[in-house]
Design a protein that fits this description.
Shape: globular
Helix content: 40-55%
Order of helices and strands: HHEEEEHEHEHHHEHEEHEHEEHEHHHHHH
Number of strands: 13
Structural class: alpha/beta
Bound molecules: nicotinamide-adenine-dinucleotide
Distance between the termini: 34 Å
Strand order of the largest sheet: 10-9-8-7-11-12-13
Number of helices: 17
């Protein structure tokens, strides 16, 4: 799918929700249009030649600041795609009550063909260009990882910001997704995949929604197909199989797919990919990967890129539930064909885990203290005295293994997961409630977008446009 088609898809979803809400045209236009998109060409010397790179940073809506959104490294990135992704960030943050506006960035590059030293120099140069224009700034614009970038790139960006603003006490909050030893937060790397797991768990708590999808019971034993075993797909597949007993019956990657009806060992497959650069050679390998997403399963999780379910293959998709871990994996036309007989858990909601934990990281950086540091031991001491009291009153002893679980105070990772779980559960309840409450709303995508628009519109209305 081209960037133009992606942008059109996002705008069409917006228009549907605006129509349902009867939003005045002047307000709808103001919200829909991106505020500004900055395009930069810059040179980096690589092996004695100057290579010119093109990058973008779009600020979609700054009704709340800072604005937030990842930076992706991809060869097919373009301005329309960045604007579509920035718009999704505005709506996503509003839906899950994260107090940020929407932004997104991209660099046109194939990161796979450069050495790590070259990627570092390119990243630092790109960061300088954005920092100069306050398009990276802890109070105005805070990037995060996306496709093709990770904690290393974020650490270089933070370091570059610190060099250019040596006296800014909040410098580390200029970017999220940093490594732990560079003021990152525990649970950020896994956050988007963890959020996908929490979204699916919450779906299984809603009988009406399960009935609509024609599924019963819980996650255990459910057949799941995952497309893209990168950051998001890997963590979602790992947690759903290892913690909830789901069977990952297929993983689709760039070079083919792996099939196993009894469930794939995700850790083993990930190490194979790290060693061999793809899924080829793993037990159950087939080469026609794109056909595999059409196979029979309960849940399909597209976690690679946009437009993979489109008018050419929509009618062949057999999954009962599609969980959009990637941004925009279903085109508007495909969505129209699928939405009445499948449950689609939309990107706006399903992959909001990343920005949610990014928000926790930003708060941690501004507060300059690890979550849990103040009250963990106090909480444990209270629990010890409670257990002692119970044991004294009953004359019975609580088992040592049980005691260990009960007594443990919350660490940063426990608090991050708890905050993420709460965010995903609350947003699902709102999305599902709105869907069931209005006969004008035909799918979760429209209910999620309508909730987001109501919040953004209210914010504009309060401050005046
Ligand atoms: P990533 O680069 O870590 O992983 C992407 C994976 O998809 C890679 O393993 C790649 O080989 C695979 N892939 C690429 N093209 C493919 C194709 N045609 N078929 C099958 N597999 C293919 O990226 P990521 O961070 O996991 O992001 C994936 C998606 O999730 C993107 O749409 C991104 O915008 C979205 N997302 C990511 C985050 C985050 O925190 N990283 C947050 C929200 C949304």
């Amino acid at each position: 799918m081209s960037g133009k088609e992606f942008l059109r898809s996002v705008d069409q979803v917006f228009d549907n929700a605006a129509r349902v809400l009867k939003l005045p045209a002047y307000l709808a236009n103001q919200i829909k249009s991106p505020n500004a998109t900055y395009k930069v060409n810059f040179g980096v010397r690589i092996q004695n030649k100057i290579n010119t790179f093109t990058g973008f940073r779009c600020v979609h809506s700054d009704h709340l600041e800072p604005v937030k959104g990842g930076i992706r490294y991809a060869l097919n990135a373009d301005q329309d795609e960045v604007e579509a992704l920035a718009a999704l960030m505005t709506y996503k943050c509003a839906l899950v009550d994260i107090p940020f506006g929407g932004s997104k960035g991209a660099l046109i590059i194939d990161p796979g063909i450069y050495s790590q030293q070259d990627i570092e120099r390119i990243t630092r140069r790109f960061a300088q260009e954005l920092i100069k224009r306050d398009l990276i700034n802890p109070s105005q614009n805070v990037p995060a990882p996306d496709m093709g970038t990770g904690e290393k790139e974020m650490a270089w960006i933070a370091d570059e910001y610190k060099r250019l603003h040596p006296t800014d006490i909040n410098a580390s909050a200029c970017v999220t997704g940093k490594p732990i030893n560079k003021q990152g937060i525990r649970g950020r790397t896994e956050a988007t995949g963890r959020g996908v797991q929490f979204a699916i768990k919450e779906f299984f708590r809603h009988e009406k929604d399960k009935k609509r999808a024609n599924v019963s019971g819980n996650i255990e034993g459910k057949k799941i197909i995952v497309q893209g075993l990168g950051n998001v797909g890997f963590h979602a597949a790992k947690f759903l199989s290892e913690e909830d007993g789901a069977l990952i019956t297929a993983v689709v990657e760039r070079d083919g797919a792996v099939l196993n009806d009894k469930g794939i060992n995700i850790e083993k497959l990930k190490s194979h990919i790290a060693r061999r650069g793809g899924v080829k050679g793993f037990k159950g390998f087939v080469s026609n990967g794109s056909k595999v997403i059409e196979r029979n399963c309960d849940i399909l999780i597209p976690a690679a890129m946009e437009g993979v379910i489109n008018k050419n293959n929509a009618k062949n998709i057999s999954a009962k539930v599609i969980v959009e871990a990637a941004n925009g994996p279903i085109t508007y036309e495909a969505d129209q064909a699928l939405r009445t007989h499948k449950v689609i858990i939309p990107d706006l909601y399903a992959n909001a885990g990343g920005v949610t934990v990014s928000y926790f990281e930003w708060v941690k950086n501004l507060a300059r203290i690890r979550f849990g540091r103040l009250h963990k031991r106090e909480e444990e001491n209270k629990l010890i005295s409670l257990i002692n009291t119970i044991e004294n009153l009953t004359g019975m002893e609580v088992k040592a293994s049980k005691k260990k679980i009960i007594l443990k105070g919350a660490d940063e990772i426990d608090l991050v997961r708890s905050g993420l779980d709460d965010t995903m559960r609350q947003a699902y309840v709102e999305m599902s409630y709105k869907f069931h409450a209005s006969n004008k709303i035909k799918d979760f995508r429209t209910s999620a977008m309508a909730i987001a628009l109501q919040k953004v519109a209210k914010s504009y209305d309060t401050i005046g446009i």
